[in-house]
């Protein structure tokens, strides 16, 4: 038999709902307020049997906000008092859920809050063996992921950098003073929090830049490598899959020599291209050797968003996309060869290679590397429509129910489905797994009910679409805790706690990936789009 759980009373003292001493006495005079025998209840994941809430009120209340996972039965209203019986169904999702039930009568109102714990995630199983996994299995294992953005990929750049220009440093791009930035340093608690929030994997973008020594050895700074390894171990200890890469080492047209992955000039300079390939080989040989003994939970990703600074719109690229894409295909081959040559668990480890600019549109120009293990994933990013997610416009609406003038002119639900369906047909259905190394949307103000509703809907729809088409997806989180453009803070990088109202958005995404209810489909998400 399930236990009867305790509620928090208005006086702050816990009492069993069935205890007579805690039940309000029905008054003879008409009360001038609504009084509840309890304001809230904490329910375990397995649910509860019948509970009782007694309400004193001037008139029979109207009830609102009862979700389908709470069975709610009204009693008899007598002498300004009524008792309700309710039970809570088991929560099978890996996220908490909450209902705020409203009671209103005679221009008065009250609320009763039901918070139910998340289902316990299964303990991590034995170390995954990539050699036995196919595209569908690796997609399922990676699942919903989280990016620790602007953490290890940040570096000193611009006029403020001084002599440190080109050196990466943990948290240098996080907000605040030097002392305040220290609070963002990654800890074990960070990744425990990420796991608890419902994520199965973490992508740790890493810039190496001036932590790489000169040719011909290109020796990586030992302290930087050790810190990266320490943080990777944190993530593994939390039960997460991990992706590591080279991130801002790519040059998007900047006039410097430390962003060495310079495709803009390599395309017309064979000697430069050869030198870059030598550095790719040396850098990835060192990284792969450092992590050679890590299990199949670790994925290595060659690059981030290689492009010439035009993001696919430069004259050179548009004139002949194959010129630069062939260079990138060659670099990805060097990466795969370098990692495989280190042996150990790297012989069969899953490896990720991006399309040009990580844009799904340019996957048509990608050539998957020759891989003796046959364990290479295609990496793309998804921020469509740009004007809604990360552009200056920051529209309030998205999707088929959005209003003209309040949303982008493209990129609705059909575009999401078409993009993912093409990736599935061109790669997944041919045995090549695909993942969204990044997706996301700038945070909206929760106080703006309309913008907040569409924001959550966008995240839910994209994640549910990714799950539907078998594509793991990694939320971009740069630690910025505000709202508006480039504000992508969901989980605090130092503590693992959700930032502000971000928990609502995180729960929506976790539900979209994990909810096993057969009636919860991409179409059902679409049908429940916000309406204004």
Automatic annotation (TrEMBL):
InterPro entries: BACON (IPR024361), GH (IPR017853), Glyco_hydro_5 (IPR001547), Glycosyl_hydrolase_5 (IPR050386), Ig-like_fold (IPR013783). Residues 184-480 form the Glycoside hydrolase family domain. Keywords: Carbohydrate metabolism, Cellulose degradation, Glycosidase, Hydrolase, Polysaccharide degradation, Signal. Residues 1-19 form the signal peptide. The keyword Transmembrane helix does not apply. Pfam families: BACON, Cellulase. Gene3D superfamilies: Glycosidases, Immunoglobulins. Coiled coil: none annotated. This is Gycosyl hydrolase 5. Belongs to the glycosyl hydrolase 5 (cellulase A) family. GO terms for biological process: cellulose catabolic process. PANTHER family: ENDOGLUCANASE, PUTATIVE (AFU_ORTHOLOGUE AFUA_5G01830)-RELATED, GLUCAN ENDO-1,6-BETA-GLUCOSIDASE B. It comes from the Bacteria. It comes from uncultured Bacteroidota bacterium. GO terms for molecular function: beta-glucosidase activity. GO terms for cellular component: cell surface; extracellular region. Residues 68-117 form the BACON domain.
